Amino acid sequence: MTTEQAAQITGLLRSGRMINIGGRPVSVPPALAQSTTHDRTYAIKLALAFVAIYVIWGSTYLAIRYAVETIPPLVTAAVRHSIAGTIMFGWAWMRGLRPTRQHWISGFLVGGLFFLVGHGTLHWAEQYVSSGLAALLIATEPMFIVALAWMMGRQKITFFSMLGLIVGVGGVAILTGTEVTKGSSLLGLLAVLLGSFSWAAGVVISPKVKLPSDALGRTALPTLCGAAMLLIAAGLTGEFQATHWASISLRSLLGLAYLITFGSLVAFTSYTWLLQQCPPALVATHTYANPVVAVLLGWLLASEPLTLRLVLASVAILGAIVLIQRGERTAAAPVCAGD
Predict the structure, then answer these.
(1) Could you give the 3-state DSSP secondary structure of residue 69?
(2) What is the pTM of this model?
(3) Domain-by-domain residue ranges, the chain?
(4) CA pseudo-torsion sign 206, 208, 40, 43
(5) Helix runs in the chain, H state only
(6) For 179-228, how does the pLDDT look when each residue is reduced to its tens digit (9 = 90+)?
(7) What is d(CA 230, CA 225) in angstroms, rounded to the nearest whole number?
(8) Which helix H or strand E contains 168, and what residues bound it?
């Protein structure tokens, strides 16, 4: 080895970083070191995003219940998404977002499915359906997604995916006994299911329509468009005139503030980003975790009993998430794409 070759090798070693493999120090080239750091950062982002849609969205059902106690449901949804959408859109605008005409059209389409129908029906239904039961009914979303995507030729239903859906629905069924549904309005139950179907349709079409490529822009535009439609709906139904602003309780205000900050700004931004990274059916597994969170919060905050039914359902629901993840890994597409 010549002196020049030795110097080149030494330079390469110095330009990398040292890691310990099998008890020995090994130099990792800069490209590999950067790749390792990138992979770790991406994995952390994925984990935090899934925590947001699993845990935070699970808690929003109780927050909606509190908010609609003294604020009309469409007004609650309209104010929630108007404030959150304005904040996100303003932030995206400062970062250079300039929506095109096609962006606005897509925003109104997706916003109508997600917020006008999806959230509008949910907020309305929680006047007549308990927050835990509403969360359980929303767990039908992955079934709608798989069916719609399969009909569009965009979803391959694997054995494990189907088994996971069946187990998940079984877990939901365990929680929905006759005593849980007693006193619930049939119209309210159907409204929640309609909202679940509408949200699933939004999930399936959102990757195909022309929305801004930036995750914040993709979140802000549909939220703002959905808020505008909710404001119109609240006005047309007379909810603004029927609102007794002086009688709004502190609990309703806190519930609304929680929905704006965590339910919309944090969780929905995470959700939109995940839809760009992972298969829709995998992202939709949050609907299996959300009922567990919702029922546990009911136990902790509303003194609802923690029964054997809850434990069995939780095991089934978490098992469904694992099965669906396995099913997505065996499909042709990767589980989650890189940045």
Answers:
(1) coil
(2) 0.76
(3) 42-329
(4) positive
(5) 3-15, 30-51, 57-67, 73-94, 101-111, 120-125, 131-138, 141-151, 159-175, 178-181, 186-205, 215-236, 239-242, 250-258, 267-277, 280-283, 286-302, 308-329
(6) 455 555 778 888 998 999 999 999 888 888 999 988 788 889 999 999 99
(7) 9
(8) helix 159-175
